[in-house]
Design goal:
mainly alpha; 3 helices; 84% helix; 0% strand; elongated
């Protein structure tokens, strides 16, 4: 995410429960994906799981960006 987006998240995460939940989920998916990336090789089922986590992370990021648009307009 861009620095401006991270700053907006930091500024509004405490007052926006939806943003907070999406951000926490995003961070959790990042940590899970880092664990997969650290492995020298993945089993076929791990590869499928990793793809699903990437899709979920991307969908969440899209929702976060939509929420941030309303905050950008208020600036």
């Amino acid at each position: 995410m861009e620095q401006q987006e991270l700053e907006l998240i930091a500024a509004h995460v405490a007052t926006d429960p939806e943003l907070k939940a999406l951000w926490e989920e995003h961070v959790m998916f990042e940590k899970i994906l880092e664990k997969y990336a650290a492995k020298p090789a993945l089993t076929p089922s791990e590869e499928m799981e990793m793809k699903e986590y990437k899709k979920k992370k991307l969908a969440g990021k899209t929702k976060i960006q939509e929420l941030l648009k309303k905050y950008k307009r208020k600036e």
